[in-house]
Design goal:
The chain has 242 residues and is mainly beta. It is built from one helix and 18 strands.
Length: 242
């Protein structure tokens, strides 16, 4: 049985839910406690809610976890990805401390509900954010990597972390890229595979070009065309740009 009930949430329409593996997840608990407003308004989320099938009944289990005291979820959607290959999706979220800035956080479903499984360090100060790109086995080693742009409006650094249960390990980083402008309500780009393995789609720091970035022994960025708005990213992700 799949739990595909539409989420009931008090978040803005631009804050979306995710559904995969028969599981649905979304943000709820709108709050204005953190006034950063990097995603176009000052409404962030206090909680993640997960709706999941129960193997012992026809019902769906509903689990919730809070960002925690002094934290919010500063994000467009929680992401469901099976990071460890066990057939159950983990949740990737942007969790922000009101004093120490954003971190990438991984939540895991257990028999007792949701738990925080792993997280990167905080950026280090208030009003500093990170913008997720996606998760995939980026270098073909069998482990899943998670990519994001650290401070896409300031530092503009692509950072790649390898996931193992309970841990995120930095494996590569490179400057000069971005995937978000202040006030935009979505995040540009993502990860594609056009037949030669996964590529991260981002923009150059000045937004003039679209790049396809691969991870091997090092990060390699390839210019695939001019940036002409979100249509360029859509074309790139649809493999319509080389």
């Amino acid at each position: 049985m799949a739990c595909t009930v539409a989420p009931t949430t008090d978040m803005p329409d631009t804050i979306r839910g995710s559904e995969t593996f028969g599981v649905t997840v979304w943000y709820e608990g709108a709050t204005t406690a953190y006034g950063h407003g990097i995603l176009g308004d000052q409404i962030e989320a206090e909680r993640i809610r997960l709706l999941t099938p129960r193997v012992d009944s026809a019902a769906c289990g509903s689990y919730v976890i809070a960002a925690g005291t002094g934290h919010v979820f500063e994000d467009v959607a929680p992401r469901l990805v099976d990071l460890d290959g066990d057939g159950r999706a983990e949740i990737i979220a942007v969790r922000t401390s009101v004093t120490r800035g954003a971190q990438l956080a991984i939540y895991r479903e257990t028999d007792d509900g949701l738990v925080l499984d792993a997280a990167t360090d905080y950026i280090g100060r208030s009003n500093r954010w990170l913008s997720p790109i996606g998760a995939a086995d980026l270098d073909g080693d069998g482990a899943i990597e998670i990519a994001f742009v650290d401070r896409p409006h300031l530092a503009k650094v692509l950072r790649i972390f390898r996931y193992a249960p309970g841990a995120l390990t930095l494996v590569a980083e490179a400057g000069g890229v971005t995937n978000h402008r202040i006030g935009e309500r979505d995040i540009a780009g993502g990860i594609r595979d056009c037949g030669a393995g996964p590529e991260m789609i981002v923009a150059t720091a000045d937004w003039s070009r679209v790049l396809a970035v691969t991870l091997g022994n090092e990060l390699v960025a390839r210019d695939i065309g001019a940036h002409q708005g979100r249509e360029s990213f859509d074309a790139a992700l649809d493999c319509q740009m080389p």
